[in-house]
Amino acid sequence: GLPGSTFATVTRRAGAPARALALPMTIALVATIIVRVMGVTGFNAWVYFGTLGTLLLLVAYALVDFGAVKVLFQKRNGADLARALVPTIAILLLAYVLFNQLYPAPPSPLNVFPYIALAWLLVGLAVVLFVPGLSARVGQALTRLEGLDRPDGAGLGRERLREEPLDDDAAVDD
């Protein structure tokens, strides 16, 4: 979670943001129960969840590569343009893998998973587009947490979090 949010709370007992970890664990448990009630075998459930996760990770990797290319082209010097070749190749390879997930269409129910992943991505896009300032707030919070906004450039990161004594359920903030 964002610094200061309830999901950023680090507990002394767990030494981790327990609420932030509990949410995806609960979602995964509920999804697992649903597919088991539907009669899906353990192996097929693993394949289904793995396929969805892989599709979403491929898109995430492609977005990171797009960001790298954008940053490198903004600098507009020869060295940076040459370095943009690697993420550009990565984007092409990721596009190839994603294309092969759609064509030829895999057997049912695997043929539905790219569309489920697309729907999940569209929900994320809608949140970014329709919650004004969310992206900026996330970026500012992460910049502040890592200490990148400090004039000396000294990042705080995890080292700072480990040094601070934590009370049970105390939020770790800057």
Secondary-structure blueprint:
Blueprint: E1 9-10, H1 18-37, H2 42-75, H3 78-83, H4 85-102, H5 113-130, H6 134-145, H7 157-163, E2 170-171
Antiparallel strand pairs: 1-2
Helix pairs in contact: 2-4, 2-5
List the defining traits of the structure above.
single chain, 174 residues, mainly alpha, two-stranded antiparallel sheet, 7 helices, 2 strands, flat
Q: Concise description?
A:
This protein is mostly helical. The chain has helices at residues 18-37, 42-75, 78-83, 85-102, 113-130, 134-145, 157-163; strands at residues 9-10, 170-171.
What does this structure look like?
- This protein has 174 residues and is mostly helical.
- It has helices at 18-37, 42-75, 78-83, 85-102, 113-130, 134-145, 157-163, and strands at residues 9-10, 170-171.
- A two-stranded antiparallel sheet has the order 1-2.
- The longest helix is centred in the middle third of the chain and has 34 residues, at 42-75.
- The protein is flat, with a radius of gyration of 20 Å.
- The chain starts with 8 loop residues before the first strand and ends with a strand.
- Mean pLDDT is 82; it is low at 158-170.
